[in-house]
Design a protein that fits this description.
The complex is a heterodimer of chains A (226) and B (374). Chain A is mostly helical. Chain A has 10 helices and no strands. The radius of gyration of chain A is 20 Å and the shape is globular. Chain B has 374 residues and is α+β, with helices and mostly antiparallel strands. In chain B, helix 3 crosses helix 4. Helix content of chain B is 23%, strand content 34%. The longest helix of chain B is centred in the middle third of the chain and has 17 residues. The chains are: A mainly alpha (226), B alpha+beta (374).
Chain lengths: 226, 374
């Protein structure tokens, strides 16, 4: 059993959602409540990974992470190891290609909160920060959790960008999706089959959980047992 | 602080040309219930939101209970959190994830923690919602949600209560009940109430003073009786849904008998002396339907009473206890009025029947011609 690749995949997915939670909530709120110049451009940039071939995204990220680029060079200077073909690089790439899966659903979740609910909170004397904690976050929470489940599952299955940016270094960048490809290349069908079945089961369970979560909140709203 | 009972308890000046045009100046007393009436887009809700600090007109000054909440000259703009306003939103805006108790508790920051529980229950008692504190908003009827919203608005011990069409989302029966409750509640409150509504009956029933708004401008203010019997002009008359709005020409004045004679088509009507309109002036005029008196058919009285008018019934529509009559005056004009349905039946007042009515001179109200008022 290829535990190392599975653990690495879960580690990458977990780290990604840890970063995406604050980033997604911040960006989702920003895009919902603020109108500023360049907002449309930012939304387009966030949505880009949805339509861009993963290899294209991987190519640009690899260029940006390489020692010749200022980002790659700067990172190497500060941290002491390069970004390309390391777990850190993989995590940064994972954050970037997951932006649309986190930010857009979270934006929808905040947009679904009626303006007068926030205004009512202010009229009750709640500061903006209290309104965020006590009103907005609990109301947007189902959408936020759904976005995080989506990000987690998507990270486990991502192949193209991971291969381009991380390569295939066991214990460092060799995730389960890469391992499946490797096993297939080596005609090791059993190992590929087992890993695939595990990822399939996980993805399937996640979708079921998402639906249950969705139903629970819809049920609460309509059946009045929140 | 809240001891000012004079007309300047709340003072408002709001001026801007767009996007929502506003040109409003008004004040109100401490115990007054003011109703803002006007069509959609007249700026009613914007005024409430500006008082509450949720909207900033270009030029704005709001002071309440001796505190300045907004003043451009002094560069003061208190945020909504710092203004003691109780705002009941049109759709209540209850926090759906919190129980009734928590909804109200959130607005009680000024109450010490050990007294909050008791205070919230007291607020619920005030709005007749005892025992429902554990429910969630979705488990409440529209009327109950409205009461919770009211309790939440009052829980903050506001200096002013603002109600944005608070009865629009409930059925007729509940609406009547809630209106009565508001009328009762206001006797216990020591603060002014500003209520926004489309509903003229509601305004008539509840208002101490009505403000008629159009395109962000105050057209007229006064008691409901004043406005409904003496609208400032034809636009106000239309906005408060007065029928029987016509044009006529001043013929002459008769100060000795306190009368002005008004030419209306081929008729000459007597009305109360209004010397400010010289003879020859074209004016608009209205008469309330209750001042149109039907003559008895078995006792012809043309010429015997004031302002007799002859015509044919164009429409006779029974609407419950009353029947609405539209009377055609030789194709020159239509007069509308209501009579008790049993009277209409007894007198056989159906369409096509000739009738005579009197227009009570005292009730004929003259107004400047529509295009001559500012």
């Amino acid at each position: 059993m290829d535990w190392e690749t599975l653990i690495l995949s879960f580690k990458l997915a977990s780290c990604t959602i840890l970063v995406m939670l604050p980033v997604g909530v911040f960006m989702g709120r920003l895009l919902t409540y603020r109108r500023f110049h360049g907002r449309t451009l930012i939304i387009a940039c966030i949505a880009l990974p949805l339509v861009l071939p993963p290899t294209v995204l991987g190519f640009y990220l690899l260029s940006a992470f390489s020692g010749q680029s200022s980002l790659g060079h700067w990172y190497h200077q500060i941290i002491g190891h390069p970004l390309a073909f390391t777990f850190d690089g993989l995590l940064l790439a994972s954050i970037i290609f997951n932006l649309p899966f986190a930010v857009l659903p979270m934006q929808r979740a905040f947009e679904a909160i009626a303006t007068d609910i926030r205004e009512a909170a202010w009229c009750c004397g709640l500061s903006h920060w209290e309104t965020f904690w006590k009103i907005e976050l609990p109301l947007a929470w189902p959408g936020i959790v759904a976005a995080l489940v989506l990000v987690f599952t998507h990270t486990l299955g991502e192949f193209g960008v991971v291969l381009m940016v991380g390569g295939n270094i066991p214990g460092e960048t060799r995730t389960a999706a890469i391992a499946i490809y490797d096993h297939m290349q080596a005609l090791n069908d059993d190992a590929a089959g087992l890993l695939s079945a595990l990822l399939l089961a996980f993805a399937f369970t996640s979708i079921i959980l998402l639906n249950l979560l969705n139903q629970r909140f819809t049920y609460h709203e309509h059946k009045h047992i929140l | 602080m809240n001891t000012n009972t004079y007309s300047d308890y709340l003072q408002i000046t709001m001026v801007q040309t767009g996007p929502i045009p506003l040109n409003i100046r008004f004040s109100c007393r401490q115990h007054e219930l003011i109703v803002l009436v006007g069509p959609s887009g007249s700026g009613k809700t914007t005024i409430l939101r500006s008082i509450a600090g949720l909207y900033k007109p270009l030029h704005c000054r709001v002071s309440c209970a001796g505190e300045i909440w907004s003043d451009d000259n002094q560069k003061i703009r208190q945020p909504a959190q710092k203004r003691r306003t109780g705002l009941v939103f049109q759709h209540y805006a209850l926090f759906p994830h919190l129980s009734v108790f928590r909804n109200i508790e959130l607005a009680c920051s000024q109450i010490p923690d050990n007294k909050k529980h008791e205070y919230v229950l007291e607020m619920l008692h005030l709005v007749n919602m005892d025992g429902l504190e554990r429910r969630y908003p979705a488990q409440l009827s529209g009327g109950q949600q409205q009461r919770v919203a009211l309790a939440r608005a009052l829980a903050r011990q506001p200096s002013i209560l603002l109600l944005d069409e608070p009865f629009s989302a409930v059925d007729q029966v509940t609406r009547r009940k809630l209106r009565r409750e508001l009328a009762r509640l206001r006797q216990k409150l020591n603060i002014p109430i500003i209520l926004v509504t489309h509903d003229l009956d509601e305004a008539r029933m509840l208002a101490d003073r009505m403000y008629i708004l159009h395109n962000g401008t105050l057209l007229q203010d006064g008691t409901p009786t004043e406005i409904l019997s003496k609208p400032a002009n034809a636009l106000v008359a239309r906005l408060v849904d007065l029928g029987n709005l016509f044009s006529g020409k001043i013929i002459r004045h008769d100060p000795a008998n306190n009368l002005t004679y008004l030419g209306w088509g081929s008729l000459e009507l007597e009305c109360r002396l209004r010397t400010e309109y010289p003879p020859g002036t074209v004016v608009d005029w209205v008469i309330p339907p209750e001042s149109i008196i039907l003559h008895r058919r078995d006792r012809p009285s043309r010429g015997e009473r004031e302002n007799p008018v002859h015509g044919i019934i164009e429409q006779s529509i029974p609407l419950g206890e009353n029947t609405s009559i539209v009377m055609n005056l030789d194709d020159e004009a239509m007069l509308s009025f209501s009579i008790p349905t049993h009277t209409a039946r007894r007198n056989n007042l159906h369409e096509g029947v000739e009738i005579n009515v009197s227009l009570l001179a005292e009730a004929i109200h003259l107004m400047p011609k529509e295009n001559t008022f500012p």
